[in-house]
């Protein structure tokens, strides 16, 4: 599954130096998906993407998309592997964690940051475990990308 959209910054989850209620006026201390210890994910350190929440026209699970689904974010010929880590409004698409945007060299300011056209590719029916392991996301993402390219 893929789409092209802008990229807004998601700072939700575990509070930190760059992601908190002082730096982000719409900061939420929770994420839709939890880490292996039951806590909120950390937007500052974990590259993740946000998918729209369930609605009458879209239900992530019905399309093989769940917390921990591996994703590839492509921006200016760079690839950042990430996980699905949060859900957002049902009518908005194009958001990634603070860590993901920093790794892509995009302005990570939750109010003024972000980027124009970004490609998001989600490899349905995959699961990174534990969800907070970026190393596992990269390994699974690279394997899925090779598999995709081999058949296309």
Summarize the structure.
It contains 2 helices and 6 strands.
Observed structural traits:
152 residues; alpha/beta; 6-stranded mixed β-barrel; 2 helices; 6 strands; globular
Largest sheet: 6 strands, mixed, barrel
Overall mean pLDDT score? 96
Q: Radius of gyration from the CA trace? A: 14 Å
Low-confidence stretches: none
In whole angstroms, the N-to-C terminal distance is 14 Å
* Fraction of residues in β-strands: 25-35%
Please give the share of residues in helix. Answer: 10-25%
Helix and strand run: EEEEEHEH
- Judged by helices, strands and strand pairing, the structural class is alpha/beta
Number of helices: 2
In one word, what is the shape?
A: globular
Per DSSP E runs of 2 or more residues, the count of β-strands stands at 6
Strand order of the largest sheet: 1-5-2-4-3-6
Describe the protein.
- The chain is 16% helix and 28% strand.
- A 6-stranded mixed β-barrel has the order 1-5-2-4-3-6.
- A hairpin with a 2-residue loop joins strand 3 (70-75) and strand 4.
- It contains 2 helices and 6 strands; from the N terminus they run E-E-E-E-E-H-E-H.
- The chain is of the alpha/beta class and 152 residues long.
Secondary structure topology:
Elements: E1 2-10, E2 48-52, E3 70-75, E4 78-88, E5 95-97, H1 98-103, E6 115-122, H2 134-151
């Amino acid at each position: 599954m893929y789409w092209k959209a802008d990229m807004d910054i998601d700072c939700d989850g575990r509070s930190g130096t760059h992601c908190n209620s002082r730096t982000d006026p719409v900061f939420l201390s929770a994420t839709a998906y939890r880490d292996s210890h039951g806590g909120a994910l950390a937007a500052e350190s974990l590259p993740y993407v946000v998918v729209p929440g369930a609605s009458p026209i879209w239900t992530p699970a019905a399309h093989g998309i769940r917390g921990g689904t591996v994703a590839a974010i492509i921006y200016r010929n760079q690839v950042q592997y990430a996980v699905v880590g949060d859900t957002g409004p049902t009518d908005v698409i194009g958001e990634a964690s603070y860590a993901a945007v920093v790794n892509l060299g995009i302005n990570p300011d939750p109010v003024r940051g972000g980027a124009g056209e970004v490609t998001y590719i989600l490899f349905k029916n995959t699961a990174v475990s534990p969800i907070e392991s970026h190393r596992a996301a990269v390994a699974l993402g690279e394997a899925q990308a090779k598999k995709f390219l081999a058949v296309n």
